[in-house]
Automatic annotation (TrEMBL):
Its EC number is 1.11.1.-. One of its GO terms (biological process) is response to reactive oxygen species. Residues 68-142 form the Plant heme peroxidase family profile domain. GO terms for molecular function: heme binding; metal ion binding; peroxidase activity. PROSITE patterns: PEROXIDASE_4. Pfam families: peroxidase. InterPro entries: Ccp1-like, Haem_peroxidase, Haem_peroxidase_sf. Keywords: Heme, Iron, Metal-binding, Oxidoreductase, Peroxidase. Belongs to the peroxidase family. The lineage of its organism: Eukaryota, Fungi, Dikarya, Basidiomycota, Agaricomycotina. This is Peroxidase. It comes from the Eukaryota. PANTHER family: HEME PEROXIDASE, THYLAKOID LUMENAL 29 KDA PROTEIN, CHLOROPLASTIC-RELATED.
């Protein structure tokens, strides 16, 4: 079995529900609310409660960083939940912006009447037919937990969850069981008539829409469309990206730091691989930042490592069987440094070698003045020592004098998870884990006398404790002699 095989599990169901609850405070008239991760501030409300909701939020606790927020993770979670349960592939757009406060309490509740539900869905941007469809798509998965909704699940269920359909998976079994009156969906046939919201919704057009959904092709098409609209419902101030598809060449794991009289530059190029073709030969090229050192075609180095990995299940469904990661370890002339790099790929199949250069823009290195130094840093335990190299001013470099800059302010801001929300301590106890909040922390660097200047750089360090927390990204900010620099370091470790 491949490591990326899908698994349709409890967490898939609650992740899917969470996406709807996050979206459900959208108001299409005012253009406010939507998929904005405000659920993080709302999940103790009666309409949002449940262990499932908490667990799926915890699942995403470490995904956020300065560039990708929790709301995008929730949207991607819903897409994965649907495919993991055998449903259709829903396109993903990025760019959601996380809310910083709770939204209005407009998530529909099962005890409300039909008119309220029609009004709620209308505010969210869905008409009555679409409401029926979206609820049928949503309730294709999972069920109602007795522990959280004892007034709805009135009888004992061995698993604690009264499922909406008799089979597990994203399909229209729920629709068939509803139409042929074999359903055990408690929101249709539960003893508590007040909370039979699915019955009121499904039958609100005399079952015309439910009958349409009896075709599995229609069900899949309709659900892909409506769940896609659901996760793309955002405040009007937010513009989502185009649909994001896997791309052929992705540069990752770049590190530039001084070492043994040169600059070491590490980079990896991830390419889509079928495993059936010959292994390509890839060469990395680069150009100097200043002066001349490289031949006219650029300095170059071959691969130092090549690892094939499985792609995600979503990528497999999009026709990406494997990824091949080619690593490069280049020694860069210290004086002339590096300004940009690109690759030449020879597929070794008789075709002409070609250049991969970020569609003509090259992969640029914006500065070499402030560098994170992974070798001088120690991230092996929760008490990390992070080291930043600062290039000595030009004149002192020429004189071979490693003078520290006269004025250096360096700090690192880190996104960490989980943090804690003091208002929600009851849930901390309930779940046995921490609240899934990420927090941002800034630490200051000081000139480190234990690290002698070398290779034109002076070294600054900062001791950082992050016991029990995972760091999801880091950005170094520095002002050196009046000039501001910033460097994003997604991972502190070379490996
Ligand atoms: C009037 C509208 C709706 C009402 C009143 C409603 C109500 C409920 C209730 C009471 C539960 C049980 C929750 C639990 O035990 O954790 C539930 C579960 C669920 N709902 Fe809805 N829902 C509505 C619409 C939707 C929509 C539009 C979707 C998604 C498109 C959705 C997706 C789900 C999923 C996937 C579950 C199962 C969660 C699990 O098993 O962990 N619901 N819903």
């Amino acid at each position: 079995m491949r490591s990326q095989e899908p698994a349709c599990r409890d967490i898939s169901f609650s992740t899917h529900k969470q996406a709807y609850h996050d979206m459900a405070n959208h108001n299409s008239t005012t253009g406010t609310g939507g998929m904005d991760a405000s659920i993080l501030f709302e999940f103790t409300r009666p309409q949002d409660i449940g262990v499932g909701m908490f667990e799926s939020l915890s699942d995403f606790a470490f995904n956020s960083n300065e560039y990708v927020g929790l709301a995008d993770s929730i949207a991607m979670g819903a897409i994965n939940a649907v495919i993991d349960c055998g449903g259709p592939v829903i396109p993903f757009r990025g760019g959601r912006i996380d809310a910083t406060v709770a939204g209005p309490a407009t998530v529909p509740e099962p005890q409300q009447d039909l008119a309220s539900h029609i009004a709620s869905f209308k505010a969210q941007g869905f008409n009555q037919t679409e409401m029926i469809m979206l609820v049928a798509c949503g309730h294709s998965l999972g069920g109602v937990r007795k522990v959280d909704f004892p007034l709805i699940v009135t009888e004992n269920v061995p698993t604690g969850i009264q499922t909406f359909a008799s089979t597990v998976g994203f399909d229209n079994t729920l629709v068939h069981e509803y139409l042929n009156s074999t359903t055990e969906n408690v929101l249709v046939v539960g003893a508590n008539i007040t909370t039979r919201s699915d019955l009121r919704i499904f039958s609100s057009d005399n079952n015309v829409t439910m009958q349409r959904l009896a075709s599995s092709t229609t069900f899949n098409t309709v659900c892909a469309d409506l769940i896609g609209r659901m996760i793309d419902t955002v405040p009007s101030s937010v513009t989502l990206t185009d649909v994001i598809e896997p791309f052929n060449y992705k540069v990752t794991k770049t590190f530039l730091f001084p070492q043994n009289g040169s600059l070491t530059f590490l980079a990896s190029l991830r390419i889509i691989s079928s495993r059936n073709a010959p292994t390509p030969t890839i060469t990395m090229f680069w150009k100097e930042r200043t002066g001349s050192f490289c031949p006219p075609k650029g300095c170059s180095v071959g691969t130092s490592d090549d690892t094939i990995t499985d792609s995600s299940f979503l990528a497999q469904l999009k026709g990406v069987p494997f990824f091949d990661l080619f690593s490069f370890n280049a020694s860069i002339d210290l004086k002339t440094s590096i300004s940009h790099f690109w690759f030449e790929v020879n597929n070794n199949d008789g075709s002409t070698p070609f250049v991969v250069d970020n569609n003509g823009a090259n992969y640029t290195i914006d500065q070499d003045v402030v560098l994170y130094d992974p070798l001088r840093s120690d991230t092996s335990n929760p008490f990390s020592v992070l080291v930043v190299g600062v290039r000595a001013p030009f004149f002192s470099f020429l004189l071979q004098k490693m003078l520290p800059p006269t004025d250096a302010n360096i700090s690192i801001s880190q996104v960490k998870g989980p943090g804690s929300n003091p208002n929600l301590t009851a849930f901390t106890t309930l779940s046995g884990s921490d609240i899934p909040f990420t927090t941002s922390k800034t630490s200051v660097f000081a000139l480190d006398p234990s690290l002698p200047p070398a290779d034109g750089y002076t070294f600054y360090s900062s001791s950082i404790s992050h016991i029990g927390q995972l760091i999801s990204s880091n950005t170094i900010h520095a002002t050196i002699n009046g000039t501001a620099y910033s460097r994003w370091v997604p991972s502190l470790d070379i490996g």
